[in-house]
Design brief:
five-stranded mixed beta sheet, alpha/beta, 34% helix
Length: 151
Amino acid sequence: MERPSWERYFMEIAELVSSRSTCLRRQVGAVLVRDKHIIATGYNGAPRGISHCMEVGCLREQLGIPSGERHEMCRGTHAEQNAIIQAALHGVSTAGSTLYCTHQPCILCAKMLINAGVEKVVFQGEYPDGLALELMNEAKIEMVVWTQGEE
């Protein structure tokens, strides 16, 4: 049996985390890692104590909002945001960490990741948000597109 690389290991955990998502459009999982240790995870879904889209339907679908636009018109919190929030809730610094995520972060998450001191983002699925990539590049956050099967 061959051991997975660190990137494969954390990306597979991000995939598993995404299985908890309650979003009807896109299931996203995120894992914040520092020094090869998981410091927080997050998946997209409604805030704690709020009805999930699985229960009440998708507001974005009802309003006909395309992917990548009008992020504020959603009941959910993004996976990357939830990972940062979990770290903060438990008093864990995100400075110098790496985010492993099933999808490219959007502009809102990009700004949070920059301010949270994340240094590297490894992501699998694309997302239609060029401005997010532009800001992270300007902030010198290393962006790595991970393709399943690559090491």
